[in-house]
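Ticket closed. Logging final result for Molybdopterin-dependent oxidoreductase.
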Amino acid sequence: MKTEHPSQDRDVPGAGDPDARGAPVGRRVLLGTLGLGALGLAAAPSLQRGLESFLAGAADRDPTGLTGLLPNGGGFRYYSVAASVPREDARTYRLTVDGLVDRPASYALADLKALPQTRIVRDVQCVTGWRVPGTPFEGVRLSRLLDTAGVRPTARAVRFTCFDGTYSESLTLDQARRADVLVALRMRDEDIGHGHGGPARLYVAPMYFYKSAKWLSGITVTEDVEPGYWELRGYDVDAWVGRSNGRDDAPTS
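Final structure:
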């Protein structure tokens, strides 16, 4: 990657003037600079939210994934594999649980929020290399929804589908029953926004982030693991952080 260096041309103010280079900074200039720095710190959270909102919206219309290359102070990159993603809210959202279960169910967002919530704070690790430390997620343990549905003895896996109409994921039944696997409703102590896969997404704490499917709409209990979207394109099905995909990242949990 080419690195841009400051210009050393003679016509840069002060470049050829030793007195200009060594002149002390005035008190008013110093105080003004400190004031601007403080203003920047105070504005940082709102600026960050604005940047994330912009990038999330751009990603919705960018099936190439190039939006994910843009820098973001929050550490996350935004990826979408669909040309556009419809928006769901508390009025329209539904999560279905079906397949090899005795009691299929459909949950509205209010139903999910009424269930006991679990909070997990772990690092998020993407298989492309970026990592966001200490990220809180909160939601319903997937195991609770499976137990309520009554998983049949022949079941060995769970498939997840998303309302973008394209993405899918899978876990073994044992993986899905882990205490650190959630149907997440909150992220970083806020309701999950559309750009991060809201109003509900899968969160699989010990695996690479592609397993944590965004815009979750369906949970189907199956006999066998069905490779998900990226797994059909070469990623590992068992995506343990640091033990898959040819990477040696530190575990997230």
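The longest strand covers residues 131-141. No further action required.
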